[in-house]
Design a protein that fits this description.
Layout lengths: L2 H17 L4 E3 L7 H4 L1 H20 L2 H28 L7 H9 L1 E3 L2 H14 L14
Antiparallel strand pairs: 1-2
Amino acid sequence: MRISSLISFIGFVLVIAGAYCPLLRPFHLFNYDLFDLNKPYGIIVLLMAVVGILAVALDRRPLLKTAAYVTLLLVVLLYIAAVFQVKSAFNFIPFKGIASGLARAIKFKWGWYLLFAGAILAVGGTFASKPKPIKQIQ
């Protein structure tokens, strides 16, 4: 296994681990992980991570690159959606100060670091070029 494949493998494992880690904590009561935020989206993120791991195991570089970039795109879109959801969760309250205070009570947790680190490592492993064969001297 090449070093770049190992880096991608570690990245996909971190994405799988990050899916089960806390991402949001509303009002310091309980934690939301990826499946609590959006279950079908979480299944798609995990499916792409599993496809990436299989691509590493089967040494399929084009599939590995596709899975890594799609995983990074999905994690970025999930973060953007979470930020917009938190900012607009209390827009039904007519008082802006109370609404913004309640929105600040929803905290982003450390699971985001694992998701982003895993997706970036998976993409980072795709940048290495194919190893050149060693020429034998005759």
